[in-house]
TrEMBL record:
Function: Subunit of the V1 complex of vacuolar(H+)-ATPase (V-ATPase), a multisubunit enzyme composed of a peripheral complex (V1) that hydrolyzes ATP and a membrane integral complex (V0) that translocates protons. V-ATPase is responsible for acidifying and maintaining the pH of intracellular compartments.
Protein family: Belongs to the V-ATPase F subunit family.
UniProt key word Metal-binding: no
Protein's name according to its UniProt entry: V-type proton ATPase subunit F
The organism of origin for this protein: Sphaerobolus stellatus (strain SS14)
Classification lineage: Eukaryota, Fungi, Dikarya, Basidiomycota, Agaricomycotina
GO MF term set: proton-transporting ATPase activity, rotational mechanism
Membrane topology: Peripheral membrane protein
GO CC annotations, alphabetized: fungal-type vacuole membrane; proton-transporting V-type ATPase, V1 domain
Protein localization: Vacuole membrane
Oligomer status and interactors: V-ATPase is a heteromultimeric enzyme composed of a peripheral catalytic V1 complex (components A to H) attached to an integral membrane V0 proton pore complex (components: a, c, c', c'', d, e, f and VOA1).
Amino acid sequence: MAANRTLISVIGDEDTITGLLLAGIGHINEQQKKNFLIVDSKTQVSTIEAAFQEYTERKDIAILLINQHIAEKIRPTVDKYQQAFPALLEIPSKDHPYDPSKDSILKRVQKLSGD
């Protein structure tokens, strides 16, 4: 099942997406669906949630990267996500440093390890 998962997907700000596109992660499939969403101040929360749902349901995505400050906008949805694939990773952005206390995956690992 994991063998077909070859893509990295990203929900992030323009700087993050630009850097990752330059690194070569960009992909548009046969249905003209992209594997990234650029979020700015005008992007509605419903759009972010819809992209999150789409990327977590696609069978060709192995990893979903999301800027932590954007994950905060849809925190209940992110916290409910429990699947192994695609793996969900919260990443920092240029203007928003990483805060381990907000990372839902790290909290889950700490809870399982008893910390």
